[in-house]
Write a structure and sequence with these properties.
By secondary structure, the protein is of the alpha/beta class. The protein has 7 helices and 10 strands. The protein has one domain: 3-Layer(aba) Sandwich (Rossmann fold). A hairpin with a 5-residue loop joins strand 5 and strand 6.
Length: 271
C-alpha cells in the first residue's frame, strides 16, 4: 500500500526575498539567525564558539540537503513488518547513489567541512563520500589590505566527475578565496561536477557579485546577508534592488556587522 503524502515531497526552503538570482539562497530561519547572533557576540569564546558553529552548520546543511540532493521513492521495511504486511515505509528518501566531495578550506572551513562530511557519511554510502583539503588564504599588504589570494597546497583524493562538490566556508566576504578554490577544481581536477554548492554563515553583496561573475553555475547558501555599510536607500529596499549602493566590507575587507575573525576564534590563533 502506498500513502500519497510521501510520494512527492515538494520541499521549499524559507528564504529571504532578494534580486540576486535563483542561485543565491539566503535563509529566513529564526533559529539559525539566533545562533549566528550568539556566534557574533564578543563574549562567545571557546569551547562554546565551536559548538555554536557546529549547530549552525547542522541547520544549514539540513536546508542544503533538502533543497539540492536528489530523492527517489523506495519501499523500506520497518520492525513492524514481521507482524503486519503493511509495516513498511513507501515514499521519498535521498537517492543513495549520489556521490559527494566536501572541500575543507583551511582554516575557517575545517570545522564545518568535517561536520558536513560526517553527515553525508550517515545519510549516504560512505564509499561515495570524500573529504579534500585545500589551503587557501588572503594575501595582505602592510596596511592589512587584501591584495590577492595565496594557495599554499592541497590534498585532493580523486576526480569530481558527476559528484556534488560542497565548499563550506563560514565567511563569504570578498569571494576571492572561494572563487579561486572553485576555479582550481574546475580547471585542474578531473571530471565535471554534477553540482557545486557553497555553504556560509554570512555573505556580503561584494561576495554575491564576485561569485555571480566568476561562477554563475554555483548554488550559494548562507544564513545571513550582511550589508551594514550600505546606503539608507539600499537598506530600506529588497536586497539587490540598489546593488551598486550595497556594501558589507570595511577597508580591511572584514564584514559589517559580521562576526569578527571566525578562523582566528575557531583555532585560538590570532595571526
Amino acid at each position: 500500500m502506498k500513502d500519497i503524502q510521501f510520494q512527492s515531497l515538494d520541499y521549499k526552503t524559507s528564504e529571504i526575498e532578494h534580486k540576486y538570482g535563483t542561485k543565491i539562497h539566503i535563509m529566513k530561519d529564526p533559529y539559525l539567525l539566533t545562533l549566528l547572533a550568539k556566534i557574533s557576540n564578543e563574549k562567545t569564546i571557546q569551547p562554546v564558539f565551536t559548538s555554536y558553529i557546529e549547530k549552525a552548520y547542522q541547520g544549514l546543511f539540513n536546508h542544503i540537503s533538502n533543497g539540492q540532493f536528489d530523492r527517489k521513492v523506495e519501499s523500506i521495511e520497518t520492525r513492524m513488518k514481521s507482524t503486519h504486511p503493511e509495516g513498511q515505509y513507501n515514499g521519498e528518501v535521498f537517492d543513495s547513489s549520489q556521490e559527494f566531495v566536501v572541500v575543507d578550506l583551511a582554516r575557517a572551513g575545517i570545522v564545518p567541512s568535517q561536520l558536513i562530511y560526517n553527515e553525508l557519511n550517515y545519510l549516504f554510502n560512505p564509499q561515495q563520500v570524500r573529504q579534500d583539503h585545500f589551503y587557501v588564504a588572503r594575501k595582505t599588504n602592510e596596511n592589512n589590505e587584501v591584495i590577492g589570494i595565496d594557495i599554499s597546497g592541497s590534498k585532493v583524493g580523486g576526480d569530481v566527475d558527476n559528484k556534488i562538490v560542497i565548499f563550506p566556508d563560514p565567511m563569504g566576504a570578498t569571494g576571492g578565496s572561494i572563487s579561486e578554490s572553485i576555479k582550481h577544481y574546475k580547471e585542474n581536477i578531473v571530471g565535471t561536477p554534477k553540482k557545486i554548492i557553497t555553504a556560509h554563515l554570512i555573505i556580503t553583496p561584494e561576495y554575491v557579485k564576485r561569485i555571480k561573475k566568476d561562477h554563475p553555475d554555483v548554488e550559494v547558501y548562507a544564513i545571513r546577508l550582511d550589508r551594514g555599510l550600505s546606503s539608507k536607500k539600499a537598506l530600506d529596499s529588497i536586497p539587490g534592488t540598489h546593488i551598486a549602493e550595497e556594501k558589507g566590507l570595511n577597508d580591511h575587507q572584514y564584514i559589517v556587522p559580521g562576526a569578527g575573525g571566525v578562523g582566528e576564534l575557531l583555532n585560538n590563533s590570532y595571526v
